[in-house]
Design brief:
elongated, Leucine_aapep/pepB, Macro_dom-like, single chain, alpha/beta, 20 strands, Aminopeptidase, Peptidase_M17_C, six-stranded mixed beta sheet, nine-stranded mixed beta sheet
Length: 450
């Protein structure tokens, strides 16, 4: 990520931008001392993020790419303006490419205020924003990493490395032998077709004095071929991002600890590869999950809910949290319902749902609450087993109803990010590829309990 400095004076030799009227993100040649004039639209939070992102992109694509850029904030910028502009700049210039010749990138952005007294306040704001942006960036990096490198062991090692750099977070990695001993049938079934066995990533943040405990569970399918219910070839390459929920959980847990939030957090990422071999699980199989509940498999491409079910029961019984949130690229139906920029929120508790929506608004991530339609609850009941994995009907709803069977009455929210977890085009602070969606929301959610 770029470095952001706050100052009350310009530095010679560094190009300067000004913020002005015009469509948010519109960049024009500036007048006089200004190389660029960047439109800030109507001045909404998204407009400022869009402006920050557009400035960095313009500087990186300029005929003479700049290593550093300065921007005049105007006579009376408020804290939110500074925060959103910085967030856009930090995320909008993101690039991920496996190459020996990285593209030119802006290294430093200087925010210029006319008031020396405002510098310390703005620096504090930028410091917090940087942690949120770092969480989204880490989630993007993990999800964008190609799956010939990223298997469950790689993801577990990456999680260990990330939290190893943060005080107060402990990582425990459970291997396939432990999973078999404990009865994690969903994870073992999904991972059975791969030469890379599954791993359960467990992260623990235990700040002193914390009275509330939040359990975060993120889907960690490092590649999803669909298994025997195999996906079409077109689009399968994008399934390297099918662990975007797990990436968001890992990144958010690290940021929560770095910010020193006073809430206990346990994070679980059930990681597996869903591939095709003689060891693959089959439609018609009956799988026994951690805790004993059984699932009748209908479609091996509905693997995310299988691994989440194990992790949810384990997390709730082992740690007894006050609230549970799972995050997953779970259903294509949610993309149809809400498009590619809004996440689906299902919840059994109104207070938890309200906290997620407020956290998303604070983070600049859009969520829409979806109904847990009781008319479809019977469809989840199994004939060969306790529950049916993929009964048909409204896919996002029935997937959520399936997961509800495993939460034992604890306040629970299910975040389906199948749409916004990856992007095909550039917009606001988002670039094509993995978006890091949900990481910032989870941090702000944790802050609401601190």
């Amino acid at each position: 990520m770029i470095d952001i400095e706050v100052s009350d004076s310009r530095r010679r030799g560094i190009p300067v931008a000004t913020l002005g009227s015009g469509k948010a993100g519109e960049v024009r040649d500036g007048d006089g001392d200004f190389r660029w004039q960047v439109g800030a639209g109507e001045g909404s939070a998204q407009d400022w993020r869009t402006a920050g992102a557009a400035l960095v992109r313009a500087a990186q694509s300029d005929g003479q790419p700049a290593n550093a850029v300065q921007v005049e904030l105007g006579p009376e910028p408020d804290g939110q303006t500074v925060a959103e502009l910085a967030m856009g700049a930090l995320l909008g210039g993101y690039q991920f490419k496996v190459t020996a010749a990285p593209a030119p990138a802006v290294r430093t952005l200087r925010l210029l205020t006319p008031h020396e007294r405002a510098v310390p306040e703005y620096e504090k704001i930028v410091g917090r924003v940087r942690e949120l942006a770092a969480a989204a960036t880490l989630a993007r990096d993990l999800a964008n990493s190609p799956s010939n490198i990223k298997n469950p062991q790689w993801l577990a090692a990456a999680a260990e490395r990330v939290v190893g750099e943060v005080s107060g977070v402990r990582a425990t990695i459970h291997d396939e032998k432990w999973l078999a001993e404990q009865g994690f049938g969903g994870m073992l079934a999904v991972g059975g077709g791969s030469a890379s066995p599954p791993r359960l990533i467990e992260l623990a943040y235990r700040p002193r004095g914390a009275s509330r405990h939040l359990l975060l569970v993120g889907k960690g399918i490092t590649f999803d071929s669909g298994g025997l219910s195999i996906k079409p070839a077109e689009g399968m390459h994008l399934m390297r991002t099918d662990m975007a929920g797990g990436a968001a959980v890992i990144a958010a847990t690290s940021a929560i600890a770095r910010l020193g939030l006073g809430v206990r957090v346990t994070a679980l990422v059930p990681a597996a590869e869903n591939l095709v071999s003689g060891g693959s699980y089959r439609p018609g199989d009956v799988v026994r999950h951690y805790g004993g509940m059984t699932t009748e498999v209908s479609n091996t491409d509905a693997e995310g809910r299988m691994v989440l079910a194990d992790a949810l029961v384990y997390g709730i019984r082992r740690f007894r949290p006050d609230a549970v949130v799972d995050v997953a690229t779970l259903t294509g139906a949610m993309k149809v319902a809400l498009g590619l920029r809004t996440g689906g929120l299902f919840a059994t508790d109104d207070d938890l749902a309200a906290r997620v929506l407020a956290a998303g608004e604070q983070a600049g991530e859009a969520w829409w609450r979806m109904p847990l339609l009781e008319d479809h609850a019977d469809a989840v009941r199994g004939q060969l087993a306790d529950v049916r994995q993929a009964p048909g009907g409204p896919g996002g709803v029935t997937a959520a109803l399936f997961l509800r069977e495993f939460v034992d009455g604890v306040p629970w929210a299910h975040l389906d990010i199948a749409g916004p977890a990856r992007a095909e085009t550039t917009y606001a602070e988002v670039v094509p590829g993995a978006t890091g969606f949900a990481a910032r929301t989870l941090v702000e959610l944790a802050a609401s309990y601190a």
